[in-house]
């Protein structure tokens, strides 16, 4: 079994992780200082959100030089030291590959916009106006039209995200070769893999049709274009497969935006030679523009179970493109805090955070722990629009503020639940000024609950969320049924208890998780001895947010 299946990933959002030099932004040295902490947590692979030079219009997801380190994060020497430190501790390092688009400040785009016959013109997607207006009706995921007119040459360029994030033209073989060259640069340094940003968007229907009827602003329209699998196979052939260091090719994780369970194996099926795994959006917090005034209701447990079941069944299918692998997450830098979504921060903070940890680390797939979730970091109270940094919030505010339904209260209410900034507030290390994240002024406000929720406090307590995570990661490491066993939902119709088994050969693990703050009668799922729980003792009922792992027949 390849390593990546039994591994645990930890996602670092570098700007918010740990600031070593007091400029208010996290940096690579700051990560180096915490490597022992991460190793002790029991994670195997560190994924860093982008660390490359960027004007930060979208916090590094707008890269202006793919082979340079963002100055606020440090230098290439710092990077080399970080990589060596990760390897020395037996962990792996995965970087973020953001190649659906670059920054408009990338030299390729600076050249491209200069003239129609510039050699870099075709590195981006330029179209003439249609009937005096936009080439089609697509809108940006960050509000407004997906096309921006450039006076210099009288054409529009495409940007599925910000106007400062022009989409690269993957139809152009020269662009593809330049991307592969850049990937080799990092692999030659010894990097262990890439998480690939919005990877299903790379290939676009070259006729650039309008939205199909009824699918206005639906991101899945941009995904799974006609040549996507050809491009990914080429990338695999020309780069990934050439860096097999004896324990398999580098790790590849696709951000599977717009990929349905039915399509998943086309990306990750075992004979496809594309990606190791993808993560889907089927349980992500919906954030289309209208959700900024009225958020969608949170997923019920029944809905969550259905999503997980559908994906497990789809990926397990034999034959054809079958038997693919997925990456499991509850939180990341694009979603609010998991304990604020599915837990009860006020009354059962420890219980609900540890229950969610139990589910995350026992599902079928490679789990990713998002920084701060291991101490149960929560959403933050934002009191005005000015407190937000995320361009998605700011743009939605601008776009909606003229509309009839708009009110400041409605907007604030919604973003206090759905905004990405909830996940981006600085990591809470100590109960001291700025949570010990920085000695300077943090780029984004620290959540004031750091006085209660912080690493230092949880490190010394056996009954903390952090200590529970450590017990879980250590137990998972020696439990093949969790890495590789089958998944079977034991009570698919129970509205508040998630009960499932993971079976491999003679080993059977049963997980019971109470997703409510009520006591629930323990459902009849024959099992054996309780080996891990977030309550000191068990009875016939599951206590509020209780999680139990049982082993044996
Ligand atoms: C991905 C990233 C997100 C970013 C977007 C554009 O969804 O995870 O943070 O804003 O792509 O690069």
TrEMBL record:
- PANTHER family (UniProt xref): ALPHA-AMYLASE FAMILY MEMBER, OLIGO-1,6-GLUCOSIDASE 1
Q: In its keyword annotation, does this UniProt entry include Hydrolase?
A: yes
Q: Which UniProt keywords apply?
A: Hydrolase
Q: Does the keyword Cytoplasm apply?
A: no
Task: Read off the InterPro entries from this record.
Answer: GH (IPR017853), GH13_cat_dom (IPR006047), Glyco_hydro_b (IPR013780), O16G_dom_2 (IPR045857)
What Pfam families does the annotation carry? Alpha-amylase
> Entry's NCBIfam families?
PRK10933.1 (NF008183)
Please report the stretch or stretches of sequence annotated as the Glycosyl hydrolase family 13 catalytic domain. Answer: 11-424
Residue ranges the record marks as coiled coil: none
Q: Return the protein name.
A: Alpha-glucosidase
Task: Report the source organism.
Answer: Spirosoma soli
Checking Gene3D superfamilies in the record gives:
Glycosidases (3.20.20.80), Golgi alpha-mannosidase II (2.60.40.1180), Oligo-1,6-glucosidase, Domain 2 (3.90.400.10)
């Amino acid at each position: 079994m390849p390593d990546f299946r039994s591994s645990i990933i930890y996602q670092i959002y570098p700007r918010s992780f740990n600031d070593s030099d007091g400029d208010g932004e996290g940096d690579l040295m700051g990560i180096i200082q915490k490597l022992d902490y991460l190793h002790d947590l029991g994670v195997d692979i560190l994924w860093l959100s982008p660390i490359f030079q960027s004007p930060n219009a979208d916090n590094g997801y707008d890269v202006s030089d793919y082979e340079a380190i963002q100055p606020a994060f440090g230098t290439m020497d710092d990077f080399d030291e970080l990589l060596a430190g990760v390897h020395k501790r037996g962990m792996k390092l995965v970087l973020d590959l953001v190649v659906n688009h670059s920054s408009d400040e990338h030299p390729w785009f600076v050249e491209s916009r200069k003239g129609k016959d510039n050699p870099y013109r075709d590195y981006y997607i330029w179209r003439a106006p249609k009937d005096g207006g936009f080439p089609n009706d697509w809108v940006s995921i960050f509000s407004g039209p997906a096309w921006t007119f450039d006076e210099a040459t009288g054409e529009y360029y495409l940007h599925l995200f910000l106007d400062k994030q022009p989409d690269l033209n993957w139809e152009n073989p020269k662009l593809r070769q330049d991307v592969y060259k850049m990937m080799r640069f990092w692999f030659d340094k010894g990097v262990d893999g890439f998480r690939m940003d919005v990877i299903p968007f790379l290939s676009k229907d070259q006729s650039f049709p309008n939205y199909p009827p009824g699918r206005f602003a639906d991101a899945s329209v941009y995904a799974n274009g006609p040549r996507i699998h050809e491009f990914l196979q080429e990338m695999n052939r020309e780069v990934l497969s050439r860096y097999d260091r004896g324990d398999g090719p580098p790790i590849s994780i696709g951000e599977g935006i717009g990929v349905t369970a039915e399509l998943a194996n086309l990306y990750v099926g075992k004979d496809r030679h594309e990606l190791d795994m993808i993560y889907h959006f089927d349980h992500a917090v919906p954030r289309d523009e209208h959700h900024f005034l009225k958020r969608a209701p949170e997923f019920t447990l029944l809905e969550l179970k259905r999503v997980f079941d559908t994906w497990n069944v789809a990926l397990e299918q034999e034959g054809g493109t079958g038997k693919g692998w997925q990456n499991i997450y509850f939180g990341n830098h694009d979603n609010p805090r998991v304990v604020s979504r599915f837990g009860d921060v006020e009354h059962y903070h420890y219980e609900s955070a540890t229950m969610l940890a139990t589910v995350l680390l026992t599902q079928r797939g490679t789990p990713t722990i998002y920084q701060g979730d291991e101490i149960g970091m929560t959403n933050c109270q934002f009191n005005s629009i000015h407190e937000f940094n995320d361009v998605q919030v700011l743009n939605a505010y601008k776009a909606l503020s003229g509309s009839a339904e708009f009110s400041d209260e409605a907007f604030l209410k919604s973003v206090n639940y759905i905004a990405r900034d909830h996940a981006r507030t600085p990591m809470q290390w100590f109960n001291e000024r700025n949570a010990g994240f920085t000695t300077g002024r943090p780029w984004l406000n620290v959540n004031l609950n750091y006085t209660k929720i912080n690493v230092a406090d949880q490190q010394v307590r056996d009954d903390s969320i952090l200590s529970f995570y450590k017990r879980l990661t250590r137990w998972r490491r020696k439990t093949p049924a969790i890495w590789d066993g089958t998944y079977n939902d034991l009570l698919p119709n129970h509205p508040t208890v998630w009960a499932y088994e993971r079976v491999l050969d003679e080993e059977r693990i049963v997980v019971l998780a109470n997703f409510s703050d009520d006591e629930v009668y323990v459902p009849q799922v024959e099992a054996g001895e309780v080996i891990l729980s977030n309550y000191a003792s068990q009875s016939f009922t599951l206590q509020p947010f209780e999680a139990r792992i049982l082993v044996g027949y």
